[in-house]
Amino acid sequence: MPRHLIFSYLSLIIAAAAMREGNFRMREGAPFKIALFADLHFGEDAWTEWGPIQDFNSMGVMSIVLDDEQPDFVVYLGDVITANNIMIANASLYWDQALSPTRARGIPWSTIFGNHDDAPFEWPLDWFSQAGIPQLSCARGSDCSFRGTTRLELMRNEIERNSLSFSTDGPRNLWPSVSNYVLKLSSTSNARDPVALMYFLDSGGGSYPEIISNAQVKWFQEKSREINPHSRVPEIIFWHIPSKAYEKVAIGVQCVGSIFWESVAAQEAEMGMMKALEKRDSVKAVFVGHNHGLDWCCPHRKMWLCFARHTGYGGYGNWARGARVLEIKQQPFSLRSWIRMEDGSTHSEVILSS
């Protein structure tokens, strides 16, 4: 068997074993690197020539980042697909395509939902003009359908079909919110010795309001007290739509980034999540997507609030594509970040653990 196939097979076995425990480990003598892919928007304008070309270009961006950075883990930070443009019954086919560059390289990943991932189909107005509805070709193994695919269906399809996925569909009592879970990064020497805890939350949108609910806040408080009662382990937070706190820090002079071209499009309301985070000295940073024209990190209280970088060619805006990269070191703990661009360049390096 060729070496690269042996490596991929071993990666699958190791990832599956780690996933059963909800954690993974640092590599000996190396930092742990995470790539964030935000706002890919696969399936957008799927009935046009433009749409599939954008998906192809997005695959190229991810491939460049993965090959240049060679991360240990990937986070899909929401708006993986543009469900409101997808005509087929099973949108998981587009979701799976977005995961394929990471899966092909044997890299484990996790996903969270954005506001477009289960949005209902939006009928284009020009379909009702003189030109009429175009000849639709649903050539992805599924009949044309406009009912959409639910969050729960998307997540379960991902988990069942991919042994490298660390995603979960979260506690049932948080419904309609789905992608809520925590993963543990353990030390090289001891799987029970955590280096960092990563919390993933569903910030809503699409089929329900853009919000992190009070029930999710209570879940975070209970879970963090359970697994990190003395706040000794650094905590890193991921969700898609920025909280209202992002609006307040956006004018800060200490912000680090390269594009500041739009106002923060925040969640509809604040139900206590930021207050819960602010009470924990262990929280180092929050990472979001959603705003394609922002890629900054700004200090807020004792933590940092960061945007990723628009990775996909789908979605609005013509800014150059790229991805935010995180690097975690164990002793002493440090969290460093930068942006890797499609052209191979890097910029906006910042230390987030100070």
TrEMBL record:
Q: Name one GO molecular function term.
A: hydrolase activity, acting on ester bonds
Ranges where the Calcineurin-like phosphoesterase domain occurs = 32-292
- One Pfam family matching this protein: Metallophos
| InterPro entries linked | Calcineurin-like_PHP, PAP14/16/28/29
Q: Where does it sit, as one GO cellular component term?
A: cytoplasm
Organism (species): Salvia splendens (Scarlet sage)
* Signal peptide range: 1-18
Task: Specify the domain of life of the species encoding this protein.
Answer: Eukaryota
From the UniProt record, list the coiled-coil ranges. Answer: none
UniProt keyword annotations, A-Z: Signal
Could you confirm whether the keyword Metal-binding appears in this record?
A: no
Q: What is this protein called?
A: Calcineurin-like phosphoesterase domain-containing protein
